[in-house]
Amino acid sequence: MPPRIRDATEGDLAAIFSIYDEQVLHGTSTFDTTPKSAAERLTWLREHPRERYPVIVADEAGEVLGWGRLQPWSTRCAYARSAENSVYVRTDARGRGIGRVLLASLLERARAAGIAVILARIAEGNPASARLHESAGFRPIGMMRRVGEKLGRILDVLLMDRHLDEETTPERDRRAKGGPG
């Protein structure tokens, strides 16, 4: 049975940041290098309107196995139609499809919030993340060369996107053909 996807709560912050801090300290999935304080974690959870930029968790029997989030791509107003996604899965829960379920839920929520384009930044050395996004319909759009330095390595970052506003739906197809929408 797949884990339940639900909105994150303040009570989930320790589990979320346990997963995240493993990458902060030992991986390249994030370019953060210092774990956040308790106050910073709370700010992180509350910093964006959750109806537009959700923070979700994959919960199995009360245990957080992974989390995902949408956040603004940029604070500049003209980018409001776009968001960036993040998906992290606990090391011992990887390979079970949890990332796929989290990303699918973020895409559904993005559509419902009227977000048109979802972007992903994937640091070099994370092929599983690139495969996950590709399997969810993202496509590579460029490479930011040598933009990061972490753990003694100079890193490239792959940019991927998915255009939700260009996808067909039965309702959109009917409207395009002049039928009732």
What does it look like?
It is a single chain. This protein has 181 residues and is an alpha+beta fold. It has one domain (4-176): Gcn5-related N-acetyltransferase (GNAT) (Aminopeptidase, 3-Layer(aba) Sandwich). 30% of the residues lie in helices and 32% in strands. Strands 1-2-3-4-5-7-6 form a seven-stranded mixed beta sheet, sandwiched between helices. The longest helix has 15 residues, at 98-112. The N and C termini lie far apart (36 Å). Residues 172-176 have low confidence and may be disordered.
Give a brief rundown of this model.
The chain is α+β, with helices and mostly antiparallel strands and 181 residues long. The protein has helices at residues 13-26, 38-46, 98-112, 127-135, 170-176, and strands at 4-7, 55-60, 63-72, 82-89, 117-123, 139-150, 153-163.
Short descriptors:
about 30% strand; about 180 residues; Aminopeptidase
Estimate what percentage of residues fall within beta strands: 25-35%
Terminal residue distance? 36 Å
User: What would you call the shape?
Assistant: globular
Name of the level-1 CATH class = Alpha Beta
The total of beta strands comes to: 7
- What is the overall pLDDT average? 93
Please outline the helices and strands.
Layout: E1 4-7, H1 13-26, H2 38-46, E2 55-60, E3 63-72, E4 82-89, H3 98-112, E5 117-123, H4 127-135, E6 139-150, E7 153-163, H5 170-176
Parallel strand pairs: 4-5
Antiparallel strand pairs: 1-2, 2-3, 3-4, 5-7, 6-7
